[in-house]
Amino acid sequence: MELWHDRILVLDFGSQYTQLIARRIREAQVYSQILPCTVPLATVLAYRPQGIVLSGGPSSVYEKKAPSVSKELFEQGIPVLGICYGMQLVTHLSGGEVAKSKHREYGRAELTIDDDGDLFAGIGKGGSTDVWMSHGDRIERMPPGFRSIARTSNSPVAAMKQDDGKRRIYCLQFHPEVAHTPDGAQLLRNFVYHICGCKPTWTMQSYVETAVKQIREQVGQERVICALSGGVDSSVAAALTHRAIGDQLICVFVDNGVLRAGERDQVQKMFASQLHLNLRILDRTEQFLAGLKGVTDPERKRKNIGRLFIKNFEAEAKRLKGIKHLVQGTLYPDVIESVSFKGPSATIKTHHNVGGLPARMRLKLIEPLRELFKDEVRVLGTELGLPDDIIWRQPFPGPGLAIRVLGSVTKERLAILRAAETIVDQEIRSAGLYRDIWQAFAVLLPVRTVGVMGDQRTYEHVVAIRAVTSLDGMTADWAKIPPDVLGRMSNRIINEVKGVNRVVYDISSKPPSTIEWE
Q1: Do 293 and 385 reside in the same domain of the chain?
Q2: Within this chain, do residues 157 and 221 fall inside the same structural domain, yes or no?
């Protein structure tokens, strides 16, 4: 992305909430970008940020290998906001004292505001507001030049600042990015607008203009192929690329044998017949199932599928002649989760279209959505004129049902899951819950249980139903589906899907769980 946007950098120290910080800033229409805390200072400054946020993290500043930054960062005149661990690191590096708290502070706390200027402007009626705490250390002594601007009963210094004209540093012991801090979004807006001086120029209209220009410059007069799955990500990527280069775009849909029921026909009808895109459909069911035979490790599944996708796209590009570029619907969360773009945090999982790619590819990638979160992609799709049926389609993993069939992937097990998934989708839509739920799907577990059907003992498969609510897929809560809807799903699956005698419902949030089981 070009540097004409005002930009806030988020340096990540391994917090589970880092992506939320970036999202909240983008909701204020200011571009934010996550970098690992390990990047050199010169790299940080090369981005010319208007402000820098230091995220939270699981470490203590006194640990031997605690992540850190250069002290020179604070001498650049760039406004800095330290959150939780970020606050403790600022204190430690600037000559203050951090110590273990006698009473760890997790969850809701009442914050008393002692300075309602700049950062807390317009926040807290009566001088207080609710915030979300998550820390075991606290500030015992502030660094020279800092003063406390807010407190809680357990943290005498719950927020502090130093604004002497040279150093503009603000620190918070709580998390403004989470929904449990009601005034958190306003606080972040105060930081990016009033303290950093950013303008709200990050809109999907401006993104279209910039992306179209970049795609045209990258492609020139050449034809390109697009990996089209029919999901919102690849569909918006195709529409955006088509806006840029028109009939130079050729969309390729690979039927990999691990799709939902009717997926292939639906894609053909929507993109070839209604949107009039140049669409080629490749049936590679046997090839993909052979590549998955006997594979039970989810990372191997993802990587095998990723390699087979690329193999087919490269073969099709060679057949078409002169194709050098491949368009993918890679999103920012895909990049973050796949390459551990999070300082010392661990990789969560490999996405088939990121970590599953071979080291050497014949095709050069075009990833026009690589900087966007899912909800931004939906706004972009509306900007491009795509129908709601595509824009609001629930996410479906690139590896498809292969990672919802836990354990070995076979035609028989895929057929069971495909039938169960169809019932879940039908009942969610029938209950009017489709738009309220981020994802709802079935998982085939690698276990069998005893049951009774028609006075006979059965020993058959277990299906788990997973449904979550979310804004961007980075965090999620299990959906409170009405019991009667769950009952209908269970009853239909057990009665209509041969080989299933038990249905369970997953009530795990993300974190600590992920949305997909594999």
Answers
A1: yes
A2: no
